[in-house]
Amino acid sequence: MNKIIKLAIVDDSPFFRTGLVSHLQANNKLQIVIECSNGQELIDGLKLGKHKPDIILLDLEMPVMNGIKATEYLSKYYPDIKILILTVHTDDKISYRLMGKGVNGFIPKHNYHDNVMLAIDTVYTSKYYFADYDFKKILAATKQQKEPNGLQEVSFTPRELEVLKLICLQHTTKEIADKLCLSKRTIDRHRENIFKKTGVRKTAGLFAYAIKYGITD
Amino acid sequence: MQKSRELQIIEKYMQGNKQSTKKLIEIFIRQTSQEIKDLQTCLVNKDWREIKEIAHKMKSAFLYLDMPRPIELTEYLRKKAGTNITASIEHINELSEICLQLINSFKKELKKL
After folding, report:
1. Cβ A22–B17 below 8 Å, yes or no?
2. Are strands A30-36 and A129-130 parallel, antiparallel or unpaired?
3. Which residue on chain A is closest to B68 by alpha carbon?
4. Which residues of chain A does B71 touch, with a Cβ-Cβ cutoff of 8 Å?
């Protein structure tokens, strides 16, 4: 990968944030374009429009505006920016809620050095990164909950279901089209219908939906 | 004097960059000193909500430095500060003591960097 990846780092602990920034700055593939201590500062930085990050590394618990609220805002106004959550939590329910809101992955703070570069590379190339997260546990947690984030079970056509499964396996539109012997345009239409039916805005939301209803089983 | 484990961790993550190492230690000393003061003030005021927030912020630093006991103490305070007042006070005092020791150790090490 030759392109420089632009990052925003958002964490209210100056020590942790500076440590992370110094660590990442040593890598010449990366450029830190925004460094701030809460969600509101991040949004203010984005609104200035000077620099738009490709990926935001976002803490969850912060004053003024926390990571959950910031994720909701970003999902609505900057859906193309990818979000990696920096977290001290290993609470599956929180992870699940955030997946439904469109995050692309999680980096546990306790061993971020081992994960952060892989997470950035993985997420940058259109995928998801969930280090140390046991999705069987998340699924079990979600089955005990009733509509924790407003996702409703809907009925899909057999073709939509096939497309949804392949999206969750991280296939591109072209790959799905080739696999199902259909045109890219048809796949785009199915994708659009799936988004409409589920009411989610980003692919990460579809992933959450599929896990919740056992579509990936 | 042998380098502390925490200094070794910072040096490793800063990949031998002395300036970055010094800067990070200075930030730790400044941030943690203030957080200990704030914890004590909140304890006097019985502001458990603020104590939970401070503990959360402190936990990030201890995760970075891979310090199991302060991680336990901050985790307790983050979740349960105020539910058992005696235990909360004990946890804050132990945490403050560990932090002060580490700050002193970092101050000495900073002079040698």
Report:
1. yes
2. unpaired
3. A110
4. 110
Residues in chain A within 8 Å Cβ distance of B10: 19
Report which residue type is found at A23: H
Which sequence spans correspond to the domains of chain B?
Answer: 5-112
Chain A interface includes B91 (CB < 8 A): no
For the beta carbon of residue B101, count every other beta carbon within 10 angstroms: 11
Range of the structural domain that residue A88 is part of? 5-135
CATH code for B5-112? 1.20.120
Size of interface A-B (CB pairs under 8 A): 56
| Residue B57, min C-alpha distance to chain A (Å) | 6
Tokens of A55: 């990926």
* H-assigned helices in chain B: 5-13, 18-45, 48-64, 68-80, 85-112
Q: Does the predicted TM-score (pTM) go above 0.80?
A: no
In tens digits, what is the pLDDT along chain A, a chain of 217 residues? 568 999 999 999 899 999 999 989 888 899 999 999 999 999 999 998 888 999 999 998 888 888 888 998 998 899 899 999 888 766 656 766 777 777 888 888 877 777 888 889 988 986 777 765 555 555 555 455 444 444 556 778 888 888 888 888 778 888 898 988 888 899 988 888 888 888 777 777 777 777 767 676 5
